[in-house]
Amino acid sequence: MDIECKWCGNDGPEGGARAYVKGPDPMAIVLCANRLKSQDEVEEVLVHELIHVYDVHAGRDLRNCEQLAHSEVRAAREAECFSNSRWSKSYCVKDRATVATQNMFPDKGKQCVCSVFEQAMKDTSPFPSSNLTGVSNASTR
What we know:
Number of strands: 3
Helix content: 40-55%
Structural class: mainly alpha
Number of helices: 4
Order of helices and strands: EEEHHHH
Radius of gyration: 14 Å
Largest sheet: 3 strands, mixed
Shape: globular
Strand order of the largest sheet: 1-3-2
């Protein structure tokens, strides 16, 4: 799998994104050079997009609203919201996943996130459940 870096526009899958997965053949993570300002942001979006890549390889169809929402919850939990406290993590994850899912499904993205949220928050694959992300692990990253 390739990782590409390019100047991203405002339309299509890159519209407003800091990074995105393109594919499936060949699958690649595209980093938007014009929207990433620090090494921390690059690391965050790589973790986020790698969760999506894992989910695609595990059989999740990200063109389906519920399956995309499930993947967005997982990706937000591991990336943008990783170091939040337990209370604010849930709010952060739901917010970030809703925004991301609504980019592809404007009319039903929020509903899709709400319908899969609890299950997706418990889905830690490929990480062992003993290494559950969140408050107990926040200082190790």
